[in-house]
Amino acid sequence: MSQHKEQWTSKIGFIMAAAGSAIGLGAIWKFPYVAGTSGGGAFFFIFLLFTIFIGLPILLAEFIIGRGSQKDAISAYKTFAPGTSWHWIGRFGVIGSFVLLSFYSVVGGWILIYLVKLISGQLSSIGQDEYGPLFGEMIASPVLSVFAQFVFMLLTILVVEKGVQKGIEKASQFMMPALFISFIILIVRSLTLSEVGEGIRFFLYPSFANLDSNTILFALGQSFFALSVGLSVMVTYSSYLPKKESLTKSASIVVAMNIFISLLAGLAIFPAVFSFGFEPTEGPGLLFVVLPAVFNAMPFGMLFLFIFLVLFLFATLTSAFSMLEIIVAAITKEDSTKRKKTTWVTGLIIFLIGIPSALSFGVLSDVKLFDKTVFDLADYFVSNIVLPLGALFISIFASRKISKEVLLEEISAGTSYGKRWFAVWFLCIRYIVPLAIIIVFLDAIGILNMFQ
Fold first, then answer.
1. Where are the transmembrane segments (predicted)?
2. What class is the 11-451 domain?
């Protein structure tokens, strides 16, 4: 057993890693297309409310469980509730991370393929109508999809095996600032396009005419997906945080950064989509079909596309690090001698589990369960079942199984607003958060309709 538990070297290192975990496919890939297919401004408004009043309290709860126990995602629950079954929240999170990273790595592989095609000149030499067929051919190719997924997992493994300080923290401190700078460059370009007003109106003006329970569930799932809450990932990350740091400030900064990136993603993408006559309801292909066509029609468009793909890759990798880390930490139990072997074995198993998702758009496209491909089923299972239920149980655990003294001590550390923060947070986490999750979840699966 290692003598000293590894810790983040600085508060900014922790915040960058936590924000990196939160800001990934959720904010950059999934948010724009879910917003596009779910009403634009109305979806963004509900997402904002859920993120602040439900996502933030749960994030802070995960921080408290992790920092308060100084343990991995499974052991943390055992520390506060020994001899009970509450540790299954952590096990549920580890399983969810397995499934999530298995299909997440597929999309990460697509980004790598596009980067190679861009550098080789293939993306700049085709017409606007050819990007759709190109994307379809790419994801249908079994060899290309699986190989790219493998390379993405390899990159993730190589960083996580180095540990918290030398691997995750070091990579995140470089990647996250680069992501913000890249986004600012893209937005400046996007806001000079012809139909910028229409794009901004679609994204920021809420119209609730077509709002339904599924849109609300998607907004709830998206707020969890985008913040990495519900899987106990943040329990693991915060366990490496020194006691002197303020959890409330850290959680608030991570949430603010996530909302800011989601806002930037919308401002970068929707004006460009409307300016070039595309539909915002394109779906998952929005970033791979519409954006390359948009960039190709701009002066220096391929340069802007390269910047976007690199930041997209950085954001995806930093989230992948956290998913692999929660699993590795749970297996190694702080024994640093086991980290390297565990990281490689776990990463390769996740790659193998993800192969059916990689093949879901080609040879396995006709294989469906509940009318969903393997990829779509994995996505639905994590986003709409694992994350909401995980968040529900975390809120119940934090508010009912940890003493108020411990909760107040953790929230008060490093800030003079402890008691004020605590009163508001406790009200949310004990009553508002569980009730909201239960109502949205039951409505989405049709239970509430039986009583109408």
1. 12-31, 43-65, 86-119, 139-160, 172-196, 216-241, 253-278, 298-331, 343-361, 381-400, 421-448
2. mainly alpha
